[in-house]
Amino acid sequence: QEYTGIKLEVAEWAPAAKEVLADKAGGRTVYFVAATLRPETMYGQTNCFVGTALKYGLFAINDKEAYICTYRAARNMAYQGIITPRGHIEQLAEIEGAKLVGTRIKAAFAINPEVYILPMDNVLATKGTGVVTSVPSDSPDDYQTLMDLRKKPEFYKIDPSWAAIDPVPVISTPTYGDLTAPAIVKQLKIQSQKDTKQLAEAKEIAYKEGFYNGTMLVGEFKGESVQEAKIKVRESMINSGLAFAYAEPEGFVLSRSA
Ligand code: ZZB
Fold it and tell me: What's the rounded Cα separation, in Å, for the pair 27 and 141?
């Protein structure tokens, strides 16, 4: 899978994260790194998810930058030459996802430029970087999780203000309008992020509808079809230095056993 890695600079650590990580970066700028298949939706980021039970590392990428992601992703990045020197993995610290929640980050391409790290039940340790940037306008999983968090902030141990940003219209589709994911979630009567089977179906529909029938409502390529804009948005983000190509090498054997 060819993902786009999105760099989300830390603006302010949550207290528990600060305790573990603050003096570990050796003066490097620290970024959460999310892997996405939908770079054209990044204007609509409203928060970013981690798995509370997952382990994350702080990895030196070069002299100037450090990334937060899973060890597995750092290993992939090392082999892909994203880390200098190539193949070298230097883990500066380890932290559990729960402690990252509440950290404020800069979402460079988003209409809301600062967002929070929030918990999601269904973050897979075996996919991407373990960091999932959230676009509730176009991702049913993200939309439903955001609704769950708003319904039960105490249960999820979050401050309600961290989940306060509403979905932002980014792409218009003929069948579902300007907020495709919320419309599909409603149509399929999805109630919670635990409805994983329906959410998988919703994701499939949202991918197809967005890619084949979507039109950009915002950004540099406003008015263009998603099919045209997708690759141009990606290129522009990569040129800015805040995104990079990230490939997922493993086949089904590894992802099953992990
Ligand atoms: C932003 C985004 C916006 C995404 C959207 C999707 C959509 P797939 O298709 O199953 O391979 N993701 C990335 N890493 C993880 C992880 N470790 N655990 C759970 N989810 C993860 O899924 C790829 C997508 O799943 C990625 O693209 C990411 O969310 C999420 F509007 O990034 B995406 C209809 C989907 N729309």
Answer: 35
Ligand 1: atom nearest CA of 37 is 27
Contacts (Cβ under 8 Å, ≥6 apart) of 68: 10, 30, 31, 32, 33, 56, 57, 58, 59, 95, 100, 131
**In this predicted model, what pLDDT tens digit does every residue of 110-139 receive, in sequence order?**
999 999 999 999 999 999 999 999 999 999
Q: What ipTM is given for this predicted complex?
A: 0.99
| Protein residue closest via CA to atom 28 of ligand 1 | 36
170 lines ligand 1 (CB under 6 A): no
Write the DSSP symbol of residue 82. Answer: -
Nearest-5° Cα angle at 118, 113 to 120: 130
**Domain limits, the chain:** 2-250
- Measured in Å, residue 132 CA sits from the centre of ligand 1 at 7
CA distance 115 to 104: 6
Sign of CA dihedral 6, 11, 14, 17: positive
Does 132 contact ligand 1 (Cβ within 6 A)? yes
Q: What pTM was computed for the model?
A: 0.96
Second-level CATH architecture of 2-250? Alpha-Beta Complex (3.90)
- In this structure, the number of other CB atoms found within 10 A of the CB of residue 114 comes to 14
136 Cβ closer than 6 Å to some ligand 1 atom? no
183-224 pLDDT, tens digit per residue, is: 999 999 999 999 999 999 999 999 999 999 999 999 999 999
